[in-house]
Design goal:
Shape: elongated
CATH superfamily of the largest domain: Spore Coat Polysaccharide Biosynthesis Protein SpsA, Chain A
Distance between the termini: 43 Å
CATH architecture of the largest domain: Alpha-Beta Complex
Strand content: 25-35%
CATH class of the largest domain: Alpha Beta
Number of domains: 2
Amino acid sequence: MLALWPMQNNICAIILAAGKGTRMKSLKPKVLHEILGLPLIWYPYHLARHLSEEIIAVIGHGREQVGAYLDRFKVTKVVQDPPLGTGHAILQARDALLTTTAEHILIIPGDMPLIGKASLGGLIEAYMSSDATMGVLTARLDNPFGYGRIIRSKRGRMVSIVEEPEANPQQKKIHEVNTGVYIIKKKFLLEAVEKLSPDNAKGEFYLTDIVRLSGNAVAFEALDPNEANGINSQEQLALAASSIQERINRVHMVAGVSLIDPKTIWIGPMVTIAKDVEIWPNVHILGKSEIKDMVRIMPNTWISDTTIDHKSAIGHNCILEGAVIAPDTFVPPYSHIMEA
């Protein structure tokens, strides 16, 4: 569905990446923690790039490091300091938004690498095909604790989002939650954020309050509830990595790649692998690696930014970084081949 909305001149994306990530217990900014060799922020950036050439990143904690990483992309950076909520983040991006000709603003958290193209496409389709002022991606969770709850009218229309600290006991029983992904008419967004107030339990400007102000919001439920899982701890990071590993491995197996033990094989999202490739356990293939057809990769091997041409074989316990392996080559076990 995402391919239906390649309106790069009509959508501007905002990535919210100012959070500290206290529960990560790390000096590294949360959005720079990695899954499969790529920082968390790469995932929403890559997703947004499918839709828009205009991307704004709101950064705050660790902004020197996060900004340095984002310098490799075409991104407008704005600073939120101190972080006073998601609504406050949009207020910091106001000047940047005023310069864009886009009519619709896509908002994606920088710490949610599991959001899928199909779910995002469904949200955009639901929003674009209606007269709504905004669209919200929701999910249904068995344990909704900590998430904003979706409040619906008796007719099933979404009327507001109540954050966990503000929710009453009845509202806390609701299992439909806000993922933090939105698409909003720019004119309405700029007007609505000016009306937000920090008069709440956390003393923050909640972007979710604009659902009530809109009076006309549409919801689309994520195809996989796991897409709602943000990263706030090392445990959540590991769980998200496993989910992405499983997704990627499934795609390659469907395309004709033999993975001898998929749970021990880690393939990055930028890797391309041809059919009839055989990969043995405990193999990592990361970066912009390309594995051509009829290649065999034996156990305990690390491959990064490497091209392996067809009918080659990589022995066990090898390290290949920035290497180019010619066709019909046998790389002996314990070989270390690195770019000069």
